[in-house]
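Budget justification aside, the reviewers requested a transparent look at the raw inputs and outputs of the sequence design task funded under Objective 1. We therefore reproduce one unedited record. The lines immediately below are the structure tokens for a 447-residue chain.
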């Protein structure tokens, strides 16, 4: 008998220890909250209650503070319209409230530090969110596709706004980022098609790829002093964007950053700019004037391709390369002042620029790529420098106004296919600099 009692006691003790120390969920039989140990408090792992309206989550459950809401704890709850989160709560994990289609308002306590990935994604009815001043991390897709959210103010305690955090929030009109935020990550506000105003903090250093891609109602931008990098396609497809104010300190504009910003008219880039990515202003069809800064050495591929209203470009002396398709199909471009330090004009760089009439190529230029000036129909005069070493096939082909050219002997064997068949090509043996020619730039036709 004693032996049986001893065995039962041992089994009971083992069960109690397993329950207390395994981390398994537990709950008061009258409580709708299932919980598990979490630091000095508990984590809500699941909600079993039936609520229609606003849920008040208590500060303590079983005498212990609520510190965390676990992943998917309230996911897909269709009747929850509001939630009051308790003071002391620090973390909301991945997908904790995602797909809560009736949830309208959320207010975070001062203690809140982390909002996890997709925590409130696809909350279709959410109109208002009030963030705490101590928030440290806003996860990727945290409010993805919250279609009725109208405005957000993000605290400076955040270092970054997570990837796609507010992507596809179609009703979002205003976004204010407070001082302290340094990075807006990839796609953070992408496809926010109603967005009309963004306030950037001076602390901002980087705007990530596609951060504001497709924000088709955004009319203007005032980028902050401290901004260093604008990522690839970050403002691409902002079709109502008319003006962008850049400040000194900006180092790079990424590939396609402002592609298809079809309402953009004027562009003054800061002197600090060093890198202009491929297709940075591709298809900005209303762009008429560009001022390029002294720090640029390379104009990227298709950087201004299809800017059909662009009339004039003055390059700084430091530019060494104009890459392929950089200005192709800029139909109204009739004035280009090439810099003295230019070494390469890439393939199709000025193809289809119908308004060109005269071109002086600078001393130091070594390479003109294939099709570089193909189809420049009004081009009648080209002055080549003695430094030229290579001219690509069809570089000046289909330029019907070009009747004769004089090329340096250094390229006479390499220029056979550069011109149309009816162009008279003369080879000069005596070196001469284009600078000694008549100053074409000063003539009225170049004003």
């Amino acid at each position: 008998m004693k032996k049986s009692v001893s065995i039962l006691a041992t089994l009971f003790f083992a069960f109690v220890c397993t329950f207390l120390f395994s981390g398994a969920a537990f709950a008061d039989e009258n409580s709708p909250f299932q919980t598990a140990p979490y630091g000095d408090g508990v984590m809500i792992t699941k909600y079993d209650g039936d609520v229609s309206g606003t849920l008040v989550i208590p500060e303590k459950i079983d005498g212990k503070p609520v510190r965390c809401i676990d992943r998917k704890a309230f996911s897909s709850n269709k009747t929850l319209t509001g939630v009051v989160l308790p003071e002391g709560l620090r973390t909301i994990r991945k997908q904790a409230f995602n797909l809560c289609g009736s949830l309208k308002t959320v207010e975070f306590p001062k203690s809140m530090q982390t909002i996890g990935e997709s925590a409130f994604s696809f909350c279709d009815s959410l109109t208002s969110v009030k963030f705490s001043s101590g928030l440290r991390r806003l996860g990727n897709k945290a409010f993805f596709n919250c279609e009725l959210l109208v405005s957000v103010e993000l605290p400076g305690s955040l270092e970054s706004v997570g990837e796609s955090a507010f992507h596809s929030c179609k009703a979002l009109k205003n976004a204010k980022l407070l001082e302290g935020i340094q990075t807006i990550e990839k796609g953070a506000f992408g496809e926010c098609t109603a967005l009309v105003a963004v306030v950037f903090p001076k602390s901002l250093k980087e705007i990530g790829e596609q951060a504001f891609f497709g924000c088709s109602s955004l009319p203007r931008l005032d980028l902050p002093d401290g901004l260093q990098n604008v990522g690839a396609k970050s403002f691409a497809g902002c079709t109502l964007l008319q003006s962008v104010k850049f400040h000194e300190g900006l180092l790079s504009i990424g590939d396609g950053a402002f592609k298809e910003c079809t309402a953009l008219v004027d562009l003054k880039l800061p002197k600090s700019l060093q890198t202009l990515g491929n297709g940075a202003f591709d298809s900005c069809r209303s762009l008429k004037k560009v001022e390029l800064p002294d720090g640029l050495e390379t104009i990227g591929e298709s950087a201004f391709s299809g800017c059909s209203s662009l009339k004039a470009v003055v390059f700084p002396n430091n530019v060494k390369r104009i890459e392929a398709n950089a200005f192709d199909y800029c139909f109204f471009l009739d004035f280009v002042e090439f810099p003295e330090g230019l070494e390469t004009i890439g393939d199709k760089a000025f193809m289809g620029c119908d308004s060109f009439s005269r071109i002086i190529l600078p001393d130091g230029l070594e390479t003109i790529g294939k099709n570089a000036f193909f189809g420049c129909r009004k081009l009648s005069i080209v002055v080549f420098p003695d430094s030229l070493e290579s001219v690509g096939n069809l570089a000046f082909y289909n330029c019907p106004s070009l009747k004769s050219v004089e090329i340096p002997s250094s390229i006479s064997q390499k220029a056979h296919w550069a011109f149309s068949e009816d162009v008279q090509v003369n080879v000069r043996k005596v070196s001469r600099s284009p600078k000694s020619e008549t100053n074409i730039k000063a003539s009225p036709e170049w004003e």
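The CA atoms of residues 158 and 242 lie 30 Å apart. The longest helix spans residues 2-21. Computational costs for records of this kind are itemized in the attached budget.
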